[in-house]
Amino acid sequence: MTNSKTGYRTIAIWAAILAVAAIAVAWAIPYIYGNAGVRSMVYIRPGMDIVALGDTLQIYHSDGFARRTARVLAWLDVDLSARYGAYEINPNDNPIAVAKKIRNHEQTPVKFTFNNLRLKEQFSQRASQQLMMHENDIETLLNDSATCAAYGKTPATITNILLPDTYEMYWNISPGKLLERLHSYYEQFWNSDRQAKAKALGLTPDEVQTLASIVEEESAKTDEYGKIARLYLNRIERGIPLQADPTIKFAIGDFSIRRITRAMLAVPSPYNTYANTGLPPGPIRIASKRAIDAVLNAPQHNYLYMCAKEDFSGYHNFTASYSQHLANARRYQAELNRRNIK
Hints:
The chain has three domains: about 10-105, no CATH class; about 110-190, no CATH class; about 190-300, no CATH class. The chain is mostly helical.
């Protein structure tokens, strides 16, 4: 009888153990096999706590997945204030894997893209929109003489290291590190071949980019870039003022101007290429790599004058004759008047 009771007690104990184990397994399964289901990018921002992170996860994933991930982070005692960054969650990631990724600060690089920008203020704004930095912080560095000098630039030429493209970097990169990264890409771009071409033109890389910025502002037609670049190179060689209308717009601070007046041509500024000979002290926009290469590879011709075509096609009439240029200009001015463009 005693052995029978002992046997029943043993069976009961094992049944209880198995029941507890089954409950534990059932409880653990969602943590191990409960996958995210969809791909997402989660950003941990300054001031975010685990509760806020859980709320963010719920935007992309199920409430259960979000709660369990937040719970694991709490168990691991993860301090999110040291984990700022962007983290990609893959469809097959479970809550434990996501929590470990964040705990180990295994960030995912993000794409940082900028193009078609004129001013450093616009670049700073774009950086703040895509990366974890405030636009004032990056703009302050771009205007700081000591920072610019560290890259061999001035506040007028520092934008030359900002080559429009798409870059991969961590979302929480600092403004200083961002400039370091972009400068390294800039140095790779200005390889020995490009430097040799600039030297053959009698220009420094900074001067090439200044000229490229003017070329790019002169025309939206990329197939004209080389021809326009050579025209200005011809003027530089002959000591003729560039007389580039976009530099007047830059000097005034208004690129929306559609018609340059005589009064505008008198604006006192080192960027006024009607009043000053040679290139201005810096670029008037962030020049594209395409425009830079157009300057470096500008085809030979003897043109000295250009005027927008009166058909408003966006293309220009080129000539080496001043009298022909005046005729071209009269036709264009007449069309401006006809269209009542002031």
